[in-house]
Amino acid sequence: MLNVPDLRKLSRQELNDKIIALKKSLFEMVSQKETGRIERPSGIKKTRRDIARILTVLREMQQGQNNALPLHMKGD
C-alpha cells in the first residue's frame, strides 16, 4: 500500500512511472484471475486503490493543492 504523504514527495514523472507499472501489474493479476491461477485475489483491489491514490495526488498537483485539506479542516 502506498502512503499519500510519500507520494506527494515524488515528481510527476515518477508518479506516472508508478501508474504504468501498477497498471501492468493489474493487467497480469486480472489475467491470472480469469485463468484461475491467481495467488492473492485481494491484490487486485489493493492495486486499483494504489492507482487511485496516485491519480488523486496528480490531480492535486495539477490544481496546485499540494497540501490539500478537507474544507472543514481549513482555516478562514
Task: Report what the structure shows.
With 76 residues, the protein is mostly helical. Helix content is 67%, strand content 0%. The protein has a single domain, classed as Helix Hairpins, CATH 1.10.287.310. The protein has three helices and no strands. α2 runs antiparallel to α3 (42-63). 4% of the residues are buried.
Low-pLDDT ranges = none
Give the distance, in angstroms, between the N- and C-terminal Cα atoms.
34 Å
Q: Helix proportion of residues, in percent?
A: 55-70%
Using the CA coordinates, give the radius of gyration: 15 Å
Helix and strand element order = HHH
CATH topology: Helix Hairpins
Tally of contiguous helical segments: 3
Shape assignment:
elongated
Biggest sheet architecture: none
CATH architecture: Orthogonal Bundle
CATH C-level class is Mainly Alpha
Average pLDDT metric: 88
> Strand fraction band?
under 5%
Number of beta-strand segments: 0
Q: Which structural class best describes the helix and strand composition? A: mainly alpha
* Assembly state: single chain
Number of domains: 1
Question: Topology of this structure?
Answer:
Elements: H1 4-8, H2 12-35, H3 42-63
Helix pairs in contact: 2-3
Task: Offer a concise description of the structure.
With 76 residues, the protein is mainly α.
What are the key terms here?
Helix Hairpins; mainly alpha; elongated; 3 helices; 76 residues
